């Protein structure tokens, strides 16, 4: 999830001293408080392996925390042609955002071939497998990969996928990054962030519904509108709050806010692509199922590609 700050809360995170940034000691305490809750090797890697007959599977690195346990994979269309525009889809930059991972894999299995004659498509379905296993926003060093997409990144997850995208030796025309906004953003991850940085926790509300984060510098209004149109056939779109905002940012059109991607070092800012969007599915809504969350992620990618077909 991406958000701006709104109002202060007195809640204090159990690790660290209020008003003081974490040292290595607190980072270690935090890391020791995490635990494995699901397995990348069981949930994700078999789904990637199952696609080897129809897509090119590329290992673009491995996380040094455990290279055998955390290999990093991307999927590429086999009909790669330098004359075609290239589309990038990323998931699991925040490993705990489940439908980002499984929505990317579902798209690769069920939908990618409908577009491979028109586009080169590359999918990195699980950028942060340690975060996936521990259901965590950060990596083991208490670094947020989705604030680390810049040269000399402190996050292996970000650095590896950036190097891979650069190695493709092609301009990325569009990038769809699949995320979720969850109740744990307010109950765990944002309080932890405030504690880590020695700041007060600023409380906010979790919007009930799907929304998109576009690029302040290249907002691509019609592109975002197309995606929302496809997604709202699958799930509900988050309404603006009483101030016309979602997570503290102005709603620029139905279900869409914009962020300065490069300034914030977000995943969708890793290239200079013309079209980018970050999806935000809300899996904790009583109105949705896990399947609908995955389907919403797929609908977002499809909505993006359908629009791009029209503007080629």
Tell me what the structure shows.
It is built from nine helices and twelve strands. With 312 residues, it is of the alpha/beta class. Strand 9 (245-246) and strand 10 form a beta hairpin. Residues 4-9 have low confidence and may be disordered. Helix 4 packs across helix 9. It has an eight-stranded mixed sheet, sandwiched between helices. Residues 36-312 form the Peptidase M14 domain. It comes from Vibrio maritimus. GO terms for molecular function: metallocarboxypeptidase activity; zinc ion binding. This is Peptidase M14 domain-containing protein.
Short note summarizing the structure:
Belongs to the peptidase M14 family. This is Peptidase M14 domain-containing protein. The chain is an alpha/beta fold.
Spell out the key features of this protein:
312 residues, alpha/beta, Aminopeptidase, eight-stranded mixed beta sheet, two-stranded antiparallel sheet, 9 helices, 12 strands, 30% helix, 19% strand
Total helices: the number is 9
Q: Biggest sheet, open or closed, and with what strands and sense? A: 8 strands, mixed
Strand content: 15-25%
Physical arrangement of strands within the biggest beta sheet: 2-3-5-4-6-12-8-11
Q: Architecture, according to CATH?
A: 3-Layer(aba) Sandwich
* Global geometry: globular
Total domain units: 1
Order of helices and strands: EHHHEEEHEHHEHEEHEEEEH
Question: How many angstroms separate the termini?
Answer: 31 Å
CATH homology superfamily name: Zn peptidases
Per CATH, what is the topology?
Answer: Aminopeptidase
What is the highest CATH level, the class? Alpha Beta
E-strand count: 12
The helix/strand class is alpha/beta
Mean pLDDT across the residues is 96
The helix content, as a percent range, equals 25-40%
Radius of gyration: 18 Å
- Stretches where pLDDT is under 50 for at least 5 consecutive residues are 4-9
């Amino acid at each position: 999830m991406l958000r701006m700050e709104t109002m202060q809360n007195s809640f204090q995170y159990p690790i660290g001293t209020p008003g003081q940034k974490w040292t290595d000691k607190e980072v270690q305490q935090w890391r020791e408080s995490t635990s494995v809750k699901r397995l990348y090797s069981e949930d994700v890697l078999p789904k990637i392996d199952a696609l080897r007959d129809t897509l090119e599977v590329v290992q673009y690195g491995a996380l040094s925390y455990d290279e055998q346990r955390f290999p990093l994979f991307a999927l590429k269309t086999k009909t790669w042609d330098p004359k075609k525009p290239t589309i990038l889809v990323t998931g699991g930059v925040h490993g705990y955002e489940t439908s980002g991972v499984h929505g990317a894999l579902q798209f690769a299995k069920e939908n990618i071939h409908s577009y491979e004659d028109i586009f080169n498509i590359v999918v990195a379905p699980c950028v942060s497998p340690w975060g996936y296993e521990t259901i965590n926003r950060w990596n083991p060093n208490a670094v947020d990969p989705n604030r680390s997409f810049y040269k000399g990144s402190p996050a292996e997850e970000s650095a590896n996928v950036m190097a891979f995208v650069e190695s493709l030796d092609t301009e990325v025309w569009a990038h769809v990054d699949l995320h979720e906004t969850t109740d744990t953003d307010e109950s765990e991850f944002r309080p932890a962030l405030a504690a880590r940085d020695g700041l007060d926790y600023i409380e906010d509300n979790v919007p009930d519904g799907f929304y998109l984060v576009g690029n302040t510098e290249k907002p691509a209004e019609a592109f975002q509108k197309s995606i929302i149109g496809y997604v709202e056939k699958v799930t509900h779109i988050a309404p603006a709050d009483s101030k016309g905002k979602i997570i503290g940012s102005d709603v620029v059109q139905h279900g869409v806010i914009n962020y300065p991607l490069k300034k914030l070092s977000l995943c969708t800012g890793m290239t200079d692509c013309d079209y980018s969007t970050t999806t935000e599915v809300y899996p904790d809504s009583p109105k949705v199922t896990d399947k609908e969350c995955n389907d919403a992620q797929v609908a977002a990618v499809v909505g993006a590609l359908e629009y791009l077909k029209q503007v080629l």
